């Protein structure tokens, strides 16, 4: 923990990206693999790897109480320190500056074990003594970073992408290989371990663990957009941009009817859209799909404004009336895993063929909203029939795709979409 704190202070003191990467790479090379891997998680601004759904559930008020107990300072002193820095970590370092050393040493492994204990504890009464113990054992500068990590606000000018660059520099790996492994695994620590073992190519996608989303890049004109496809054999495929929320669906009905839907932040949102789960179970093989959740009118067979979908966002549980009032569909436009293999690195045209074949293999009507929908309610699971107005409408759709033959044709398609 002392060396980690020194590293974090050094990174915070420089604005040069190259210097941050150098400091990180030197640290990764100088420490044992397990310590470097744990540090990579913390330096990415996380407590646990991205794929894990665990959280500490330890907010600012709990940290405030822990600081008050360890520092012995009154509330007015805590308030003054926080106002001075606008950062609870820095405030904690100052408040604990006069604290006598406990003589104990705190390692990153100790910190990870304590975080695991906090995550497994329920309620502030159980979590508080664990945080208090950490702060009592820590030096003031270490306490600063413990608080920052717990609060999820490291503030040292570091992003996960820089940690990836440092891993590549530390172990002589290609940055693209590091990025690919981290995207597939959702675990910067495991990525570092593979880089250290020169085994990044062995990274495998784990179904039900979301991967990083691929994002689009804007083009200023049809001519610029078309220029990316310079080879005659490459098809220029054109799809609409949908006004909903990006979602990744992991489906494996072979292990029991298993479906999990993840947002762009890699959070599971399946309970928010219960009508999509039974529809996605229609796929006969394990797949990972990329697409957009849209508010949808079954009567007109078209997307509703995003303002309608907003009524359903931010809800872990939805009511029957909301499911009926704002129906949704999952518009699929890409496939990341199928046939027991990763498809990410296949050409888009080939991925599209796989998607079309996959949809063709699903029996007609299997995506229909006529299926029963389960909701969690005060009485447990509530099962009901969907609204009559959307009965028969598919809940899962394959995004339409057309080919553009020239920049002028692309401009025409764009005008039609507008």
Describe the structure.
By secondary structure, the chain is α+β, with helices and mostly antiparallel strands. It has helices at residues 2-12, 17-30, 33-43, 60-71, 75-85, 88-95, 108-120, 124-137, 140-151, 160-171, 175-185, 188-196, 222-227, 276-280, 306-310, 320-325, 348-360, 407-417; strands at residues 236-238, 245-252, 258-262, 287-297, 302-303, 328-338, 341-342, 373-377, 380-384, 396-398, 402-404. The strands form three sheets. Strands 2, 3, 4, 5, 6, 7 and 10 form a seven-stranded mixed sheet that branches. A two-stranded antiparallel sheet has the order 1-11. β6 and β7 form a beta hairpin. The model is unreliable at 375-391 (pLDDT under 50).
How would you summarize the topology of this molecule?
Blueprint: H1 2-12, H2 17-30, H3 33-43, H4 60-71, H5 75-85, H6 88-95, H7 108-120, H8 124-137, H9 140-151, H10 160-171, H11 175-185, H12 188-196, H13 222-227, E1 236-238, E2 245-252, E3 258-262, H14 276-280, E4 287-297, E5 302-303, H15 306-310, H16 320-325, E6 328-338, E7 341-342, H17 348-360, E8 373-377, E9 380-384, E10 396-398, E11 402-404, H18 407-417
Helix pairs in contact: 1-2, 2-10, 3-12, 4-8, 5-6, 6-9, 7-8, 10-11, 10-12, 11-12
